[in-house]
Automatic annotation (TrEMBL):
Transmembrane segment boundaries: 365-384
Protein name (database record): histidine kinase
Record-linked PANTHER family: SENSOR HISTIDINE KINASE GLRK, TWO-COMPONENT HISTIDINE KINASE
UniProt keywords, alphabetically: ATP-binding, Coiled coil, Kinase, Membrane, Nucleotide-binding, Phosphoprotein, Signal, Transferase, Transmembrane, Transmembrane helix, Two-component regulatory system
């Protein structure tokens, strides 16, 4: 159960002196380390206190410390009675749950279930998530003990939600510890291990060694069921060592599991040692269920080994223990009858308290009326604030919509600019040379231009038509990419061979100015990309280099190996460019300048080259200095 918070103690209206005493005894760090001293202090103050609110707080603190003791029951009953009288739903639900645990430990499951269900109703009415979680958790535990595993899992799952929502890690650790056993019983071992590991993580953090050992013991039981005996044994031994120091009852439970493990491992020497230790502990702190299980396992081993003397001794001890166990069951039955009688007495007291409460209701009517009016006013304020927030949201949405429309308008302007540029290219750069050729052909047909005169124009016409072919390829590729995207057909090919082929085409073209072409890419350099696209990129970059270099200047293509890709560099010793010009490249404004022989251009070649390289999972960039030359570098993958 969750412990009482400091803020909750402060909320009660009692004298500062008594409040200080309670805070000292309940929350002093030194006393927290000495439970016996704390119990004595709480008991002494309880004997001297008659004021109901203070007494309830002292009772709640006392039963938290002695809830494993048989002497706790009367204090639970008084705390429950006072909590009803003071209408303190939190402490009422807490102590109902604790009293249920008391009866559960005595194996009076039906009685404990009644208290858990009442605690659940009280905590739900108060919307107390922590106590709702504990109540659901406790009910789930009873169903688990009764073998109703599906019903138990439903309650544990609901309890987990309330612990997580309220942020109660202590309760969540209890929940996941119990839930893991239910999941194990249902055969959901992976989910069970996940739950118990989370519980162990939480309890390792909060430093509660007893609870941590219990969680590890539950994990060990799961591991035994799964057949992982070595891993289970480690946690069971930890519980056994803890039990020897603090709790012989837990120690006997651990010995029960150790006997099971050693029986399955057929390590009968260790088993006999654990049986002897169990008998010694049982004499000091009886645990009939565990010792009966231990003796039963030992009898199976004695029978297997044909150890008649040990078998006779074990059977005699088992018979005596079963007799004592049956006697204890009779005592439990009689205790149940006593509990039922006490319950009837409590119900009678509750009825009397109800009559007192009815007499006080009249005085509360005015308070309720004022409270309702306050709620109405608060609701009106909330509605008005929601209206204002709604208006603000509408205004914000309008602003966002306006921004989107402005962005779309800007995009449309850019698209129109691109369209206009393409039309300009088509009408001037592409149509001009064709019209010139058409005009010359007309002049020849009309006999205004001789064959010799036409021959002088052929080199220029060849240059223009060659540029038109490359321009047309770039335009078609760029347009296709803008409208429907490019289809990539990747394959392996020899990059050095492709460069040599393009050098031959350049040397045969009219753009060639007798530059010194160098291919430094090693033969057999294979890359994985779309061959046609890479060839268009090379052609664009080489034509760009031809355009901006003079006769005899060097144009160099080399490569560099970078793990999974190659860096390909087209380097020229031409005019170069400054930073302003470099910043304008690769953009949709189609920036271009005249070449060394006043060659024109569109700027489209670099744009389409960048797109093609990026479609092949690479990058393209430029390094250049004005008057020194330029390097256009792109990357392509090897594989």
């Amino acid at each position: 159960m969750s412990s009482m918070k400091y803020s909750e103690v402060k909320s009660f209206n009692f004298s500062p002196l008594i409040a200080a005493a309670i805070l000292f005894f309940l929350f002093s760090p030194s006393n927290a380390q000495d439970s016996s001293k704390l119990v004595d202090s709480l008991y002494k103050n309880l004997q001297q206190t008659v004021e109901s609110k203070v007494r309830l707080q002292l009772l709640a603190g006392l039963v938290r410390e002695i809830h494993y003791s048989d002497s706790a029951q009367p204090y639970y009953l008084e705390a429950i009675s006072l909590a009803r009288e003071l209408n303190n739903s939190r402490l009422l639900a807490e102590n109902l749950n604790r009293l249920g645990v008391y009866y559960r430990n005595k194996n009076l499951q039906d009685e404990s279930l009644l208290y858990y269900e009442e605690a659940l109703a009280v905590s739900k009415q108060a919307d107390d998530y922590v106590q709702i979680g504990h109540s659901l958790n406790n009910i789930g535990q009873i169903y688990y003990l009764q073998g109703l595993f599906d019903e138990a899992l439903n309650y544990y799952t609901d309890a987990e939600y309330y612990f997580q929502t309220s942020g109660d890690l202590y309760g969540l650790a209890y929940n996941l510890t119990g839930k893991s056993l239910v999941l194990g019983a249902l055969g959901q071992y992976l989910n069970a291990l996940e739950a118990i590991n989370t519980a162990i993580s939480i309890r390792s953090t909060n430093g509660n060694s007893r609870q941590l050992i219990v969680s590890k013991f539950n994990k060990a039981q799961l591991l035994i069921d799964m057949g992982d005996l070595d891993a289970a044994k480690k946690d069971v031994l930890a519980l056994y060592e803890y039990g020897l120091e603090y709790d012989y009852f837990r120690a006997l439970q651990a010995l029960e599991q150790l006997v099971v493990i050693e029986q399955k491992n057929r390590n009968f020497t260790n088993l006999k040692k654990y049986v002897d230790e169990a008998l010694i502990l049982h004499n000091q702190r009886p645990n009939s269920e565990s010792i009966i299980a231990i003796l039963t396992a030992a009898i199976e081993v004695a029978t297997l080994e044909k150890n008649d003397n040990w078998l006779s001794e074990l059977e005699e001890l088992l018979a005596e223990e079963k007799k004592e166990y049956n006697t204890q069951k009779v005592r439990d039955y009689l205790a149940k009858l006593t509990i039922q009688r006490q319950k009837r007495e409590i119900e009678q007291l509750n009825r009397e308290n109800e009559l007192k409460l009815k007499a006080e209701k009249f005085r509360n009517y005015i308070f309720i009326l004022l409270f309702v009016m306050k709620i109405i006013l608060l609701s009106l304020v909330i509605l008005y604030r929601r209206y204002l927030n709604h208006q603000r949201k509408l205004n914000q949405d309008l602003k966002v919509q306006k921004i989107k429309i402005e962005a779309q308008a800007k995009e449309l302007v850019q698209i129109n600019q691109v369209k206009d540029k393409i039309l300009s290219i088509l009408s001037h750069d592409l149509r001009g040379p064709l019209q010139s050729l058409q005009g010359m052909l007309d002049l020849i047909n009309l006999k205004y231009l001789t064959q010799e005169e036409f021959q002088t124009y052929i080199p220029q016409i060849s240059v223009d038509l060659g540029n038109n072919v490359l321009l047309l390829e770039n335009l078609l590729l760029w347009s296709k990419n803008q409208m429907q995207g490019m289809q990539i057909n990747k394959s392996k090919f020899d990059l050095s061979e492709m460069i040599c082929k393009n050098f031959q085409l350049i040397q045969a073209s009219s753009n060639y100015k007798q530059q010194d072409l160098k291919n430094k890419v090693p033969e057999g350099t294979e890359i994985y990309a779309d061959k046609n696209m890479i060839e268009i990129v090379l052609r664009n970059l080489l034509n760009n280099a031809l355009k901006f270099t003079n006769n005899g200047e060097q144009i160099l293509v080399n490569s560099r190996d970078h793990s999974d890709n190659y860096w390909i560099c087209v380097e020229d010793k031409g005019v170069g460019m400054n930073q302003i010009v470099k910043n304008k490249l690769f953009k949709n404004d189609f920036y271009t300048t005249l070449g060394t022989n006043n060659e024109g251009g569109t700027g489209l070649g670099l744009i389409i080259s960048k797109d093609l390289i990026e479609h092949n999972k690479g990058t393209l960039w430029v390094e250049s200095e004005e008057g020194i030359g330029s390097k256009f570098i792109f990357t392509v993958p090897k594989h």
